[in-house]
User: Fold this.
Amino acid sequence: MSLKFLVVDDSLTMRRIVVNSLKNLGYNDFVEAADGQEALAKLGADNTINFVITDWNMPVMSGLELTKGIRNNAESANIPILMVTTRGVKEDIIEALQARVSNYVIKPFTPQVLKEKIEQILAAQST
Amino acid sequence: MGNINNNMATVFEKLTDLKNVFKFGEKIVPIIQSLIEFMKEIVPLLENINFSISDSTKKIPQASNQIQNVTSATELATTEILDLVDEITNILIDTENSITTYFQDINERVESYEKLKNMFVENPEVLAMVEKLSPSKTIQLKETRLLDKISKIKSDSYQITLSLQVQDITAQQLASVNHLIESVHNRLTSLIQDIDQAELNRDIKEISTMEIPEGVVFDPNASYVNNSDRQKEIDVLINTQSNKTTQEEIDTLFK
Assistant:
């Protein structure tokens, strides 16, 4: 299955790093958004997006609100969501899990961890 | 007579009270004098403290702006580094492709020379000449070494890219500091206004309350630590959740 990623982060630096990492993993189809609201608009306009990688702390709409927005929409409810964030405290992770993120990566991330999480999500989806 | 005696007793009583008042006055006057002396000394000191607070408060917005400038400058510098790394990576990919093409050409030539040598097996003079013209047999080793070096440079460039995650993390830390500075500034401004509204009217006009920008989001605990343990703890939680355990069970994992 070919993957089209939506990379959501208010930091241009982080978006570029995530996209570069995905390119290194052999993926070549990306869409970018600077906050949750822009991400939702892009998801609504492009039904070929089938994987979301999002930061948590963003202005306008956070990654957590974006996750809830995606899960509450029947058309996008099953899209895999990987949260990539600096927030590593227990309460945050539990909150993200309750919002039904597919997996969680702490910044700074390594390409190995990113690869592993993407593969785990895809494996879980195929079963 | 009885009335007169009573009245006199009252007069004496009042006189005694008056005497006590004078005695108390004698005792209290030095204390009041000391108090006045103390106030004379303390008032300039308080004014000085007031001035220092208002002066420092006026400088806080400047500090806050400088922090914002640092964030903007590091983001710009990081973008420039990323641009350069991308450029280097693209050049390396081009170079890698050129080297591969070049060595394919060389290998074809080596094969041609081998065929040529077979044609002149019985002519040692020509054979020696062909041998001399033929590319080195170690060419493949050279190709591998070159491509390995390019691959190493590409990998190092990518590591530089990954290390630039520090910019996002420090930006969040600086945003957190800025938020604290802005809160302190607004508290101090409010304090100055409460201390002496009339006296500090002039300064208060100059000290405007800082707007705490809305929508600025940050993680005050953001840290740049290359430690896989944090990710492992999260993985345990995620796995536990996927096995449909209870919230209490998830909580105990962190105790």
The helical segments of chain B are 2-119, 124-133, 139-163, 165-195, 201-206, 228-242, 247-252.
